[in-house]
Amino acid sequence: MSSSIPSSTPSSASPAPKPSQHGRLLSFFRPRVLRDLAIYLALMLPIVWGLVAVEQARFAALAKSGSSRDLRNYARVFTEEVRATVGIVDLSLLQLRATWQRDRADFPEVVGEHARQLRHRLPIQVTVLDARGRVAYTNTGPAHVGLDLGTMAGYRAHLGIGDDRIYVGRPVICPLTDAWTVQFSRSIRDARGRLQGVIVATVSPDYFVRFYEDIDLGPRAVVALVRQDGALIARSRRGSKNHGMGIVLKDNPFGEHSTLTGSFRRAGQVDGVERQYAWHRIPEYGLVVSVGEAVLDAEARFVRQRAVLSWAGAAVSVVLALLGWAALGATDRRRRALKALGAAEARWKLALTASGDGVWDCDLVTGLATLSPRAQRILDTERAMISWYGSALDTMVHPDDLPQLRTQLRKHLAGRTGDLAAEFRVRLRNGDWRWIDARGTISERDDVGMPLRMVGTFASIDARKHEEARMRRMAHEDALTGLPNRVLLGDRLRQAIRSASRDGHKVALVYFDLDKFKPVNDTYGHAAGDRLLQLVARRLRAGLRESDTLARIGGDEFVVLLPRCDSLQQASKVAENILVQLNLPFEDGALVHRISGSLGVALFPDDAMDAEALLRAADLAMYDAKSHGRSRVSGRTN
Question: Which of 248, 324, 480, 594 is most buried, with most CB under 10 Å away?
């Protein structure tokens, strides 16, 4: 056909020229394209940076909520530790006061035995003042006997107190030891209530903040023990112990009529550091435990994440600009470019909101999810693709977690939730279970709005779950024997008393320690003593009812709680059975240990009307058993 064209018109015979590369580039700079691009960016960039700002605010809220949660947990745990410590001191004062009033000749020996029993748990110094404030006895040495301590706060406080209560003094330098001490005192009165003297137990303030190294709240965290009047008893922070001890803190949120626990934020009155504090009152002793974390330390946990968010926002802004420019300049690819942009926006939103680090991409039509290498390691699978439909989830997810996971998936696919967020356990190849946190969002829908594609992340939260379980065990179980500790015993005892008060039955406590236990430690070492305690716990637990509680409250001291008891005879029979079990030999490999026990029994409401008083009554009954020859059971003595 080209051969028929006259030679006089060669230009008409040549093909039409294609747009040059330069022309295609110029099409992106036409005024209309640039105007539309400016409008597009004006709409999209505020959204992107608004999301960045929202996530930045979320990280700040996470820092605050995480700090508050950790502070409340630490304050609660440390409060129970301080309550147990002060309870031991108070119980010691009551026991030693009874000995002083009953038999002063044996008092030094009893104090010595008491000190030996507590030397690994709570070293204390004991001083007895007469009615005029002079030292009648002290285990710091006979040279101090007769010294006038009438100006001591622990003595003068009881001149104005008519009832029998423990007094917790401010930290002072002890005139007997020239060291900082916290004084706990009770009055000694005759039958008519006249003051005959004061018995004082002094403890180093360092003992109340010894658990500071166990916390991880940053270099400027503080732990403090404060009286309700604001007097600072003990305070510890990294590199500084008892700094500011003895000063009186002002404008405190905790007081005699405040709630048991709370939190606040302010600059420290000792060092001026801005902190978030959590406090927990111990109303029975007029004390408050306070734990504080520096605001800067809490926010520092998310500095890196905030930087990543800023870079991600910048990257998203650049990507959106390029995609928008390409979409506006190439109209023939407009639909696919806008769809890719929507998918990119969903992925970037998930990257900003998800905290996991294993990525998955699920085709909702087939139910097949593609896993990143990190997601494969979290799920402990070699397959790069897994099914989310049919029985696949049944074999992978823990049966207890499966119904909730299916419900959350259905809600998200139905559009009732903005994002998927679920915590559940998956089975590993060795049969173990691992906790994971799954987050996801629908990234693609068809023309009628049905979901086609979903992307998300997996993150292993095993460490967090194990730490939560460990904290619960540490707060309620004895680490050596696995038995309930003093805290859990107190909770169950108070519940049993409430139930008994409502239903009209009795509650019994059997308080005992092991006779001849110390020679086992001295002869065969503490490891053998620990094994013996475990043998005792297993044997006695097996002989009790399921509803009864066997608790180890320290050293070789145990308590059995009988939540429903008809009479003292029934409780004594249980105690006698325990004594029989203790008198039987305990075989520890090649070793055979022969021990016994001294047991005291007390009943609610016969001997006491509350948990603490009932525990003291059973303890006094145990000491009565010891004083009558050991290896026996004794009821409450008045």
Answer: 324
Residue found under tokens 């991600």: 312
DSSP structure class, residue 290: E
Q: Which of 150-154, 236-240, 449-453 has the highest mean pLDDT?
A: 449-453
What the block records as the tokens of 528 is 């053998």
Structure tokens at 382: 């070699």
Measuring CA to CA, how many Å separate 281 from each of 33, 83, 187? 68, 10, 24
Position 33, amino acid: V
Integer Cα distance of 171 and 152 in angstroms = 12
* Nearest Cα residue to 351 out of 313, 385, 318: 313
- Is pTM beyond 0.85? Reply is no
Whether 229 is a known active-site residue: answer no
Query: What residue ranges in 317-450 does DSSP mark as E strands?
Result: 358-363, 368-371, 385-387, 420-427, 433-445
Radius of gyration in angstroms for the set of CA atoms belonging to the chain, rounded to a whole number: 36
Highest mean pLDDT among 100-114, 158-172, 488-502: 488-502
Report the C-alpha dihedral over residues 90, 94, 95, 98, rounded to 10 degrees.
170
478, 513, 556, 607: the catalytic one is: 556
Whole-number Å distance between alpha carbons of 422 and 377: 19
Q: What is the DSSP letter of 19?
A: P
φ/ψ of residue 9, rounded to 5 = -125, 60
Number of other residues whose CB lies within 10 A of the CB of residue 589 = 7
State the maximum Cα–Cα separation within the chain, in Å, rounded to a whole number: 142
